[in-house]
Write a structure and sequence with these properties.
The structure is a single chain. This protein is α+β, with helices and mostly antiparallel strands. It has one domain: Gcn5-related N-acetyltransferase (GNAT) (Aminopeptidase, 3-Layer(aba) Sandwich), CATH 3.40.630.30. Helices cover 35% and strands 34% of the residues. The chain is built from five helices and seven strands; from the N terminus they run βαααβββαβαββ. The longest helix is centred in the N-terminal third of the chain and has 18 residues, at 11-28.
């Protein structure tokens, strides 16, 4: 299995990520959110227009490839003292193959490389829905710890009930 991470840069890649998001979200979140909330969140956060807006604001999207096929995607935002992992989604057929672990290891390698100028970034943070037990278990297995709970009004009468999780970026 050949594993690669590629920055999303072209219109075609943005469309591929949008399509993957719609497939992953509708399949994965059906037991966590209502169909109405899924549709709202996809349009607000994962539509082509939303992806382009986020990218213009400094969010960096990456395609996760297995044997040159899109297996998932992630999105990060470099903050002043930490890396915010805004999205990490793996398509159903690629789950349980260690891709999340390999993706986090890739981020660790990038952010501990002094030549890339990120030596001030020593931790990674993320948000995960409190009812998303599978993802919470994965993140805990990867060394993330729950820091706090937050309820966020995302508009249209919907609230995300999340854990904020973090982990140190290990030294070499």
């Amino acid at each position: 299995m050949r594993f690669d991470i590629m920055p999303v840069a072209t219109e075609k890649q943005i469309s591929e990520v949008e399509t993957a998001a719609y497939n992953v979200w509708r399949n994965y979140y059906k037991d966590i959110f209502s169909p109405e909330q899924i549709s709202y969140m996809l349009e607000k956060y994962q539509s082509k227009a939303a992806l382009k807006k986020q990218m213009s604001e400094g969010y960096i999207y990456y395609m996760i490839l297995v044997d040159q096929q899109l297996a998932g995607y992630m999105c990060v935002l470099v903050q002043s003292s930490y890396l915010y992992l805004a999205r990490l989604y793996i398509k159903a057929e690629y789950r349980r193959q260690g891709l999340a672990k390999r993706t986090i290891a890739h981020l660790d390698a990038v952010f501990r490389n002094p030549e890339l100028g990120f030596s001030h970034i020593r931790k990674m943070c993320l948000r995960v829905e409190r009812n998303n037990h599978f993802a919470i278990n994965v993140y805990e297995h990867l060394g993330f710890k729950k820091i706090r709970s937050e309820d966020t009004d995302i508009g249209n009468g919907f609230v995300c009930k999340e854990y904020v999780m973090e982990r140190a970026i290990p030294a070499k």
